[in-house]
Specification:
Layout (H helix, E strand, L loop, with lengths): L3 H30 L3 H27 L19 H29 L2 H31 L3 H11 L11
Helix pairs in contact: 1-2, 1-3, 2-5, 3-4
This protein binds MU-OXO-diiron (FEO).
The site of MU-OXO-diiron (FEO) has 7 residues, from helix 1, helix 2 and helix 3.
Length: about 170
């Protein structure tokens, strides 16, 4: 049976996913301003992924005959000193989100909310990919250091990442 307690916790996670989208959008905006369009594109695609996470939780709440609460969001950080600093912050953030998902999953299990448990399994797996994606770029940036040509090529490479949906009309 759908637990009201889990619905409340899912609403809190909805806020975390929105904050994730907002954070990555802020990173994209910073790279855009610095004319590093590839890094910006990577973070725009990531912000799109986060909106998919938001909408999955949103939809699930209504399937459970509950209601989504849309929260107020704080202004995110506006600039990062280097691509490495931004991607390290993104990886740290994903690790935090993994912790949130794991505690939600445990809560669903403890409450005997089987539908919630199955739903959250998708997020458990998704977080493995989310951390791996950010970690891959952190490792590349650590290897390349601050060499302008290497950063130029990596910016180009990351720009190939496709967004999960188009925001163009
Ligand atoms: Fe929705 Fe990147 O975790």
């Amino acid at each position: 049976m759908a637990s009201e307690k889990l619905n409340e916790a899912l609403n809190m996670q909805l806020k975390e996913e929105l904050k994730s989208a907002y954070l990555y959008w802020a990173m994209a905006a910073d790279f855009e301003a610095k004319n590093q369009k590839g890094f910006a594109g990577w973070f725009k695609a990531q912000a799109g992924e986060e909106m998919i996470h938001v909408m999955k939780i949103y939809g699930f709440l209504y399937e459970r005959l509950s209601k989504a609460e849309l929260p107020a969001l704080e202004k995110p950080q506006a600039s990062w000193s280097s691509p490495l600093e931004a991607f390290e912050a993104a990886l740290k953030h994903e690790k935090f989100i993994t912790g949130c998902i794991h505690s939600l999953y445990k809560q669903a299990k403890d409450l005997g909310d089987y539908a919630g448990e199955v739903f959250l399994q998708w997020f458990v797996n998704e977080q493995v990919e989310e951390e791996a994606n950010a970690d891959e770029v952190v490792q590349k940036l650590q290897t390349l250091g601050n060499q302008p040509m290497a950063l130029y090529l990596l910016d180009k490479e990351l720009g190939a990442r496709k967004p999960p949906f188009s925001l163009q009309g």
